[in-house]
Write a structure and sequence with these properties.
The complex is a heterodimer of chains A (about 110) and B (about 110). With about 110 residues, chain A is an all-beta fold. Chain A contains no helices and 12 strands. The radius of gyration of chain A is 14 Å and the shape is globular. Chain A starts with a strand and ends with a strand. Chain B is an all-beta fold and about 110 residues long. The relative contact order of chain B is 0.33.
């Protein structure tokens, strides 16, 4: 079975500081992993995806994530936080078969302090 | 870009009413999904469909049903609305089974049951 754990339901960083949002996955087969962002009163928008190619994945808005099989992690980072990054972030993992179901973490709300 | 459109952003209904939430996608995707999102619980899958007239139960199907008469449209039905169904409802679509392509989300419907 697949599952995702996001450590920290709330993260606060100062503007310009490093953003690190943690995601650990559990999967019995090679996973595909995704990060989504949700701005207030909107749906989820895809930030980036890992599909078994390069382990360092670059996404939109300056975010990137590194797949580490030995640590079963897929942490999201951004070198310098911007006020517009304030949102909720979700990590998700796929199942190998079936209708492309995603298993989501419970989300991390990022606050950026001016 | 894929466009997933949910018919209502905000909806207020009364206990016992039959409620319809509509979702339309414009990219000929085979897979469609309905989630509910609650604080601290992340996204939970209600139902999904990988073909016209096909449906599969997700993790929390109780109290809900779905309809998929056309490929582009996936409807969520609350047979007899209850207050514990007050939530944000998100519709998503993805390409097809086994492709492990990302899901694309609508902007959500915030449903209040009084």
């Amino acid at each position: 079975a697949q599952s995702v754990t996001q450590l920290g339901s709330h993260v606060s960083v100062s503007e310009g500081a490093l953003v690190l949002l943690r995601c650990n996955y559990s999967s019995s087969v090679p996973p595909y992993l995704f990060w989504y962002v949700q701005y207030p009163n909107q749906g989820l928008q895809l930030l980036l995806k890992y599909t078994s190619a390069a382990t360092l994945v670059k996404g939109i808005n300056g975010f990137e994530a590194e797949f580490k099989k030995s640590e079963t992690s897929f942490h999201l980072t951004k070198p310098s936080a911007h006020m517009s990054d304030a949102a909720e972030y979700f990590c998700a993992v796929t199942v190998q078969t079936g209708a492309n179901n995603l298993f989501f973490g419970t989300g991390t709300r990022l606050t950026v302090i001016p | 870009d894929v466009k997933v459109t949910q018919s209502s952003r905000y909806l207020v209904k009364r206990t016992g009413e039959k409620v319809f939430l509509e979702c339309v996608q414009d990219m000929d995707h085979e897979n469609m999904f309905w989630y509910r999102q609650d604080p601290g619980l992340g996204l939970r899958l209600i139902y999904f469909s990988y073909d016209v007239k096909m449906k599969e139960k997700g993790d929390i199907p109780e109290g809900y049903s779905v309809s998929r008469e056309k490929k582009e449209r996936f409807s969520l039905i609350l047979e007899s609305a209850s207050t514990n169904q007050t939530s944000m409802y998100l519709c998503a679509s993805s390409l097809n089974r086994g492709s492990r392509q990302p899901q694309h989300f609508g902007d959500g419907t915030r449903l209040s049951i009084l």
